[in-house]
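Researcher: Next sequence.
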Amino acid sequence: MDTSGESIASIVGHLLVIVLFINAALRMLPAVRPFPWPALVFVVLIGVPSLLQAWVPQITDALARDPQATLHGQWWRILTALGAQDGGLVAAAFNLVVIAVALTFAGWIWGRWLAIVLYLLPSILVNILAVFVWHAAGGGSSFANDGLMFSVFALALLVGSRDAAHPSQRSTTVARIIGGLAVAVAVVLVATDDAHGVAMLLGLLLGVVAWWLFRRRGIGGGRPNSQTRSIRTRSAAG
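Model: Next structure:
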């Protein structure tokens, strides 16, 4: 599996996914939108080492995913690979913009804490695959970005539009079409041996699980919040 994301198919696919994500997310925003502090925190945490590594390459050596180093006890590289962008300064800056957009919208749609979980899990799981199955070195935030965006696509496919300003069946249908197009992109990437397609489909699966937990059990064992009630109401109506 190619984990670099430098192929033409991967670049075009990611640009298309970002456009589709923004269009889907705008149809699903709740009325209450708190300050997106997870987006700010992760942009800083990932951005500082990602940008500094252009001048201090030792940062990449210390943080990047390295199968041999991981197998010899440096397990933390599974996590720190998020801050080791392997595509250069331009790719690092682009990924930071995607982090800000994805975590802002997903935080409003899923809730901030759940968005953090849906951001980190795909990165951790795909990096584990990269180390133990594909034996691929590298790093970057694209696995996390892809997984989080596709968790929102999962919600679009399952629930459709939740935008109070556009409650029509047409808006719901459009949201589901957008989700379907995104899944098609992920399938194409998997077919071309691109690991980012795996991250996308994994994020889709995690989104389905998160929706099921919202719908059936609530989050954290407490009283469902307004976003949970919105999902349940839409599910009951559908």
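Model: Confidence is low (pLDDT under 50) at residues 217-238. Residues 8-237 form a domain with the Rhomboid-like fold fold (CATH 1.20.1540.10).
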